[in-house]
TrEMBL record:
PANTHER family: TWITCHING MOTILITY PROTEIN PILT, TYPE II_IV SECRETION SYSTEM ATPASE. InterPro entries: P-loop_NTPase, T2SS/T4SS_dom, T4SS_GSP_E_ATPase. GO terms for molecular function: ATP hydrolysis activity. This is ATPase. CDD domains: VirB11-like_ATPase. Residues 86-366 form the Bacterial type II secretion system protein E domain. Belongs to the GSP E family.
Amino acid sequence: MSGEALFGGAVRYTADTEQDSRGLKLTLHRYIIDSIDDEQVNILEGPRPSVSRFVTDQVVDYINRHHLPVSRYEIERLAEELVDELTGFGPLEVLLHDASVSEILVNGPDRIFIERAGVLYQSDLRFIDDQHVHRVIQRILAPLGRRLDESSPMVDARLPDGSRVNAIIPPIALDGPCISVRKFHKDVLKSADLLAYQTLDESILQFINMAVAQRCNIMVSGGTGTGKTTLLNVMSLLIDSHERLVTIEDTAELQLNHPHVVRLETRPPNAEGHGEVPSCALIRNALRMRPDRIILGEIRGAEVIDVLQAMNTGHDGSMSTVHANSAQDALLRLETLVGLSGRQIAERTLRQMICAALDVVIQLTRLPNGRRCISEVVEVVGVRDDVYVTNTLFSLDRASGRFNREAHNPAGHKLQAAWRNAL
């Protein structure tokens, strides 16, 4: 019987419970896979409309054979979800195509959270079971040559559109397989967008513009999801088009709209534990590539020494990000990372090295209403009595949401011109 014949007449009622619906979907999934196995060719290799027609026919056929009370709407929904599962990333497919969704968080098969405008919401989408989540993870990893199993239960990967994916499975994840997707936005944000979103104001933007032009070494600091990579992208648009940039990232996220960019990405070890290419090796190699500026996506380990040395050896105008709660904490975080790297450097010498390398720290924050904005812009002046000397140039008034330009003038000669030209 055709789909049109089944759909004729009054609309029937849906499955009694959500559990029944999920069970029916699982049964239909297996039924369709068996039907595909009976075909001479793999229908899944064809265009999506052909797959959709095949799946709908199979759903209708199964429901008619078993006289199931399923409505037209439910059949259409089941068919669409099954097509997504068979050809794409299951329930994630619709979220990946939703431009308003910036992050997708899967906490086991029953809980999918999404972020819109900086605020998390729970979605009504579901996976069938743990195996369904695991199949989608494997489908993501298959073209990338990455592995995820009990011996290697965590993985970072990148979707074809550039979105960043982290997956973790039992026994490490106690409540089932988990997926975190940081979506890649095709439309690169510009400075005008940051002004519209109140990430910064005209004075801060003008200062950053001049600081980039003066080849200041800039560190962008903040927590997860505060917009560090976005700000790094915007600052790259301010760099002179004649300069050569080398970017280094663990997972490529930067979208540098610049005519002369060399993009490098780290490589994890293979199944035998060989072939790893860490950030520190890429930084050392980048120094041999005649870069005007080095842009390191994030400082998180032993590469901190190499990037500080690069900033101190003539590669002015370099930029990077670090996770920290404040600009002052960012400097201490760099110290901590040096200590964790195993390098033995006297505290005073290390602090002098950090101060010589950095000119500005830009701190980002995310407010309770989801707004991502700059909370402070701090000049790194030097070390006095073994203590960092900093100068706050701009700060956020959290009560009013406005940005304040502080009264102090920068001490560094590079920043003085930027400060004078700020509105």
